[in-house]
Write a structure and sequence with these properties.
The complex is a heterodimer of chains A (327) and B (318). Helices cover 78% and strands 0% of the residues of chain A. With 327 residues, chain A is mainly alpha-helical. In chain A, helix 3 packs across helix 13 (272-296) and helix 4 runs parallel beside helix 6. The mean pLDDT of chain A is 83. Chain B contains 13 helices and twelve strands. In chain B, the strands form three sheets. In chain B, strands 7, 8, 9, 10, 11 and 12 form a six-stranded mixed β-sheet that branches. Chain B is globular. The chains are: A mainly alpha (327), B alpha/beta (318). At the A-B interface, helix 3, helix 5 and helix 7 of A face strand 7 and helix 9 of B.
Amino acid sequence: MASLVVGLMAAMVAGVAWGAVYVPPADALAALGRALHGGGGGLADTLIVQVRLPRVLLAALVGASLAGAGTLYQALFRNPLADPYILGVSSGAGLGAMIALTATAGATAMRFGVVPLAAFAGALLTMMLVVRLASLGGRLEATSLLLAGVALSYTLAAITSFVMVFAHQQMAAIVYWMMGGLGAASWEYIWMIAPMFVIGIIVPLLSTRELNLMLLGDERAGHLGLSVERFKLVILATASLLTAAAVAVSGLIGFVGLMTPHMVRLVLGPDHRRLLPASLLAGAIVLVLADLVARTILAPVEIPVGIVTAVLGGPFFIWLLIRGRRA
Amino acid sequence: MTRTTRTARALLIATIFAALAAIALTGCASNSGSSSATPAATSANAAGFPVTITDDASRSITVKAEPKRIVSLAPANTEILFALGLGSEVVGVTSYDDYPSQVASITKVGDFAGPNIEAVAAAKPDLILATSGVQADVVKKLEALGATVVVLDPQSLPGVYADIERVGKVTGSSDKASTLLDGMKADIQSIEAAVAASPTVSTFIEIGQNPLFTAGQGTLMDELITLAGGTNVVTQPGYVSFSSEQLIKANPSVYLATKGSSSDPSSIERRPGYSAISAIKNNRVVILDDSIVSRGGPRIVEGLKAIALALHPGIQLH
């Protein structure tokens, strides 16, 4: 755990230190110093304080949110394939964003704030609808939740594509948004999702024992004194809040939410008292580093961060799997 | 899952058969049409038919007789046809076409990225003007069904000239095409002359905002910037996603953005770090209509004019 904290610090320092434009370390430090005193306006100040720092912090927050949400969904459904996307949350966010992009076509000044908020609203509405559908029969079963999520996800994605055919003026903006990325990072975004992130992680971090009980199955968890249905709803809500926070500011970034918890589980085992905080830290590290690669490897040309997470993450995950089998 | 795949495949096969049948019927119809129009063919021969040209996909295409029914699969192609006075012969366009206003009443044969082969066939075209890239597959399919397809995809101003000339040739309107080209070249020369005295202006052009997307060296937009008396701060070739850090460092004097990038000046000014860019400081953000700066048609002259005025607000143009 301590090594993960050190790792995150190192990743963030690297993220601030490197970029498309070379800023000497001494200048970068001086710029940070000036920023603390509220001054500075040179190139180094602008790049470090206004561009890189918010981007690195946002990458850390988004990575932690996605990995945290993935861990929670996987615990809840005892299903290794559960992730922030399979429940339709991402499709809901996508549809919300698309509606906002189309609606604000003539008033682009509003777009900056409206699109993330609409994505968030779409994500939450979808989650509520999925839970409602899944609990029609009475109990909230993991299987019916997944089925309702997948079904709704396809429906929403189809509606998104359908509207896109007619809103082709906005198509580029929508497609870019869906590709995911942290290029739009700003301090405004950080202030916007920080509260969502804090609320979204406090509840699960205080319930790691209950999360462990869930691994035993609904029935045994119930016998051991957990009010399973209510706990599921609480965790679903917080996990969706985390997902929505991430999707709202960075679009659809794949892989991190699904794979990071698995990587951590392979190394640390399934105990949520270690797994959950470690996943948050690992998710932050993964996305900070992936974004650093995305914006520097072909600089000043940037590549979508989702490509980096998948290209680097996939083989790393396979290596972990093979190593796990041998041990 | 397998069931869905199977249904989808069945649908696909059915669609292909339907398309084949439709094209076969069209083929018959146009054959019978040409035999009855044999007397007219002599007058067409006066205009030089059959003509053979090499299109932008480097293919040699022969057009046997003067086309009467033309389908255009790109807005730029449509604009060329209308500028040559062939608007009444255009029987199909894409849903992206919006200029001139008469296109609103022309049958839509699908969108730019995916023209519907059946709809194209139903329009019974004797000439199809397509583009490359996204339409490469469509072109192959249409040709496999016996249609005459000319691919137009100009990447430069001389390329636009050449395409207008090509369209003139294959439609028997070469005279009109050369008049149009003379006018365009004269306008462009007068714009070049107007900016010649002014010092060049460092410029950035935004096509998409997140990720920040721009036109680099060798693109039509880059050429327009250069002709308008500017230097593109992007030195990478082609259309690329660009680092905002590098943009802030490059510090362009003018910031151009196309409308399609879904931007407006106030949202550009608010982006982190942009306040340090000289174009933002001096209020020189200009939003351009993408249909005039990205379409390789006659209105590219208007695009050049708009960029020249953005870079050199003081110049006199008529």
